[in-house]
């Protein structure tokens, strides 16, 4: 609990975002150590200037500790898990994306590292066709028992959640608010059921209101949590298309349900297919083949990168770095450090050793790839 107290406080400091948090953790090894670093050592950390040092050592520090203590009490009372990125329950898929949040608030029994996970998104102005396609899509997923992820919004999102509940599938709603604020309020009853048969997830602290800037941030978590994203209905512009674009930027598969060419509600989906940004979804086999859901990786166990190296040939720390590189092809040293949960100074030494063994190769800009 002491570790979580400091981890939570670190994320609550103003002006210290996810990237700087990971940088500080790389040098401090733990959040508690970060708060104990003297100003002289803080100045040696790349990206840390006088403004950051003042935040870490000044009055803002006390405010963050007080807020962290209050949040921990509230989380314990309401059965909320707080997952720092070093927690084993933190979603492994999410850790693979470069702009992943460093801390999540989660409530529910669903496994965020389920073997199979699919995001289902779409327009808030769903038509009857959209409802039928969403229900048919989720029904077709039942043999795979995946975790169904969406955004709890009006339209396709809430239809996907309700269809998953109806079919007995776990479903997680990613929120643009704190867990104590259900938005929209009309979906409270569904959200309560999801707490029992799935879960609610957010990166935002308790009390966070549905500010419009929070929704694009929410969308990246939806895309990052899933093996693939299915867009059921979408107009030419909207949050569903933003989620699809984000998923593509993460090298995740996107599928779209085609619609009538004269239907404005399907124009976004039709354009995704036309522009080769999404595979056409018409039946469960389309999704199964694209995501390779019959492969052994997704049949048993939790999601992990599939290494082609034997762990017997490497130290646990070396193998952790190889697993990250296998999943992302190439990565920056700082990114490798936080995703493998290793101190930056250790990562530099480990990579040098792997270079000598001709396992990895350094690229310009402190990037590394497997040979």
Can you describe what's shown?
With 371 residues, this protein is an alpha/beta fold. It has 3 domains: 2-78, DNA polymerase, domain 1, CATH 1.10.150; 117-298, Rossmann fold (3-Layer(aba) Sandwich); 311-370, Winged helix-like DNA-binding domain superfamily/Winged helix DNA-binding domain (Arc Repressor Mutant, subunit A). It is built from 17 helices and 12 strands. The chain has helices at 2-11, 18-28, 31-36, 39-43, 50-57, 59-78, 92-95, 128-141, 156-166, 188-196, 214-225, 239-249, 267-274, 284-291, 316-328, 333-340, 344-356; strands spanning 81-84, 103-107, 117-121, 147-150, 171-174, 198-202, 228-231, 253-256, 279-280, 330-332, 360-363, 367-370. The strands form 2 sheets. The protein has a 9-stranded mixed beta sheet, with helices on both faces. Helix 16 (333-340) packs across helix 17. 43% of the residues are buried.
Which helices and strands appear, and what pairs or packs with what?
Elements: H1 2-11, H2 18-28, H3 31-36, H4 39-43, H5 50-57, H6 59-78, E1 81-84, H7 92-95, E2 103-107, E3 117-121, H8 128-141, E4 147-150, H9 156-166, E5 171-174, H10 188-196, E6 198-202, H11 214-225, E7 228-231, H12 239-249, E8 253-256, H13 267-274, E9 279-280, H14 284-291, H15 316-328, E10 330-332, H16 333-340, H17 344-356, E11 360-363, E12 367-370
Parallel strand pairs: 3-4, 3-7, 4-5, 5-6, 7-8, 8-9
Antiparallel strand pairs: 1-2, 2-6, 10-12, 11-12
């Amino acid at each position: 609990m002491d570790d979580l107290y400091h981890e939570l406080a670190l994320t609550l400091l103003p002006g210290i975002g996810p990237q700087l948090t990971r940088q500080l953790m790389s040098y401090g090894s733990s959040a508690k150590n970060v708060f104990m670093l003297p100003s002289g050592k803080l100045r040696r950390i790349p990206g840390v200037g006088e403004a950051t040092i003042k935040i870490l050592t000044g009055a803002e520090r006390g405010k963050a500790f007080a807020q962290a203590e209050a949040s921990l009490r509230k989380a314990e009372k309401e059965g909320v898990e707080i997952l720092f990125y070093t927690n084993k329950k933190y979603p492994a898929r999410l850790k693979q994306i470069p702009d992943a949040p460093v801390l999540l608030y989660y409530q529910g029994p669903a496994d965020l590292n389920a073997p199979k996970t699919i995001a289902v998104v779409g327009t808030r102005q769903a038509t009857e066709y959209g409802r039928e396609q969403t229900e048919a899509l989720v029904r077709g997923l039942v043999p795979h028992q995946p975790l169904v992820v969406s955004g709890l919004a009006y339209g396709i999102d809430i239809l996907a959640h309700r269809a998953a509940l109806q079919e007995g599938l776990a479903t997680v709603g990613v929120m643009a608010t704190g867990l104590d604020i259900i938005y929209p309020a009309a979906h409270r009853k569904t959200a309560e059921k999801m707490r029992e048969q799935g879960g609610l997830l957010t990166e935002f602290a308790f009390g966070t209101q549905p500010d419009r800037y929070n929704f694009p941030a929410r969308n990246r978590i939806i895309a990052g949590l899933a093996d693939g994203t299915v867009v059921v209905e979408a107009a030419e512009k909207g949050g569903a298309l933003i989620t699809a674009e984000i998923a593509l930027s993460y090298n995740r598969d996107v599928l779209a349900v085609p619609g009538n060419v004269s239907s404005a509600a399907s124009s976004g989906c039709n354009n995704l297919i036309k522009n080769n940004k999404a595979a056409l979804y018409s039946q469960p086999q389309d999704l199964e083949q694209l995501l390779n859901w019959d492969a052994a990786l997704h049949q048993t166990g939790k999601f992990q990168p599939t290494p082609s190296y034997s762990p017997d040939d490497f130290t646990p720390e070396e193998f952790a770095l190889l697993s990250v590189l296998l999943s992302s092809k190439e990565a920056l040293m700082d990114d490798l450090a936080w995703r493998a949960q290793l101190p930056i100074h250790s990562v530099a030494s480990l990579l040098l050793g792997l270079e000598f063994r001709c396992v990895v190769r350094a690229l310009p800009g402190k990037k590394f790839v497997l040979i």
